[in-house]
Amino acid sequence: MANPTAAEGRDGGPWRSWRHVTKLDPDRPITPETVRRVVEGGTDAIMVSGTLGVTRKKVARLREMIGPVDIPVVLEPSDARLVEFEGFDRVFVPTVLNSGDPTYIAGKHAAWAGRSPDILWERVVPEAYIVLNPDSAVGRLTRARPLDPETCAGYARVAERYFQFPIVYMECSGALGDPRAVQAIREKLTRATLFYGGGIDTREKAQQMARWAHTIVVGNVLYEKGIERYLETIVK
Amino acid sequence: MANPTAAEGRDGGPWRSWRHVTKLDPDRPITPETVRRVVEGGTDAIMVSGTLGVTRKKVARLREMIGPVDIPVVLEPSDARLVEFEGFDRVFVPTVLNSGDPTYIAGKHAAWAGRSPDILWERVVPEAYIVLNPDSAVGRLTRARPLDPETCAGYARVAERYFQFPIVYMECSGALGDPRAVQAIREKLTRATLFYGGGIDTREKAQQMARWAHTIVVGNVLYEKGIERYLETIVK
User: Which of A64, A99, B133, B150 would you label with A183, given CA atoms 20 to 30 Å apart?
Assistant: First the structure.
């Protein structure tokens, strides 16, 4: 991946052309052979990311296993202590806009920025998460507020037009979201890139979601159903 | 004020040249003569804003009393039901980044955006409030979290670099803030305009704060000490 430039700004960035992103979790077991098949399988980027049980050591081990590759490898830290620029093209920093706990909206971010004088901001990509499944691990951790369709669309618009985030991320982890909800959000957005993640474990589900999301994110399928099922989700 | 343009963006905007802003509260009594003297006194902009007891009717009455004027008149609504574009150059929409209640960070905004299809986003100016006095009206309402200097600086950096707000607003209402804290924040910012409000009721205090803030905001002095004391705060 080329170095970020000042022109990249809020609206642009290489993620605009990503159709399929693979999330690898540093806390889950995976073999070098599986990682190799992921890297060569056609996904557009690898995101190193996990909600619980992640340590710097586990991140480093996974990054090493991925090795030098031609596709972008980005880190999505769940906590400030996991931030690492070395070895990653970019650091995708989430905020959970519908969190019930301000810590996950701006609190951790402020604590991080307050004590870290050396943040490479030009390599930080802000992501506005909208967490749709309050019963998922991330939903429970962040105390995500349940959303009616109107408020969900409101969060998407606010993410793009008020906060001006380059990425709006609909997170349905643990279950496939309603494609009509993804469609409704997509139709509200004019500039942001819409990521969708959650429940994609077949080619059909991947196609359903890729119809409306700019980018689909898969991960669990790899750990739970294996590499062949994972490869089915690569639709473009 | 000229109409906003696409080029205005996040970093620019007429507020960059404002040194002194006057907050008029629709819920507090004021005479047409006092309003006239404010308008002619040399302030750079009038902000119609109040925390409690504000209604659309009171806003309209105050806007009418101000009349057609050569300086910008902006609205800073404390709630979505008060948003009104008619008669105002822009609508300054605050988020309280250190609020203990997500409602004041993104919740009200999402509810507003979800049910309002007609928001004139090009006239919406996002402000990142950092509320420094938890015992003030706005501090109690938003359950503002007390901040050590490091975390306070962290919020300022996050406001500018992560959320990319054009305005960072240090709100000390009820007491004069520590000029060294304002200096510390100013030194962290490279693009955002730094507003400071709270406790400015003499020429000396105005000068102290204007030394570090790009823009000082005064209001209470007018209601509590009168027009002559207010006029002393106009330093540029």
Answer: A99
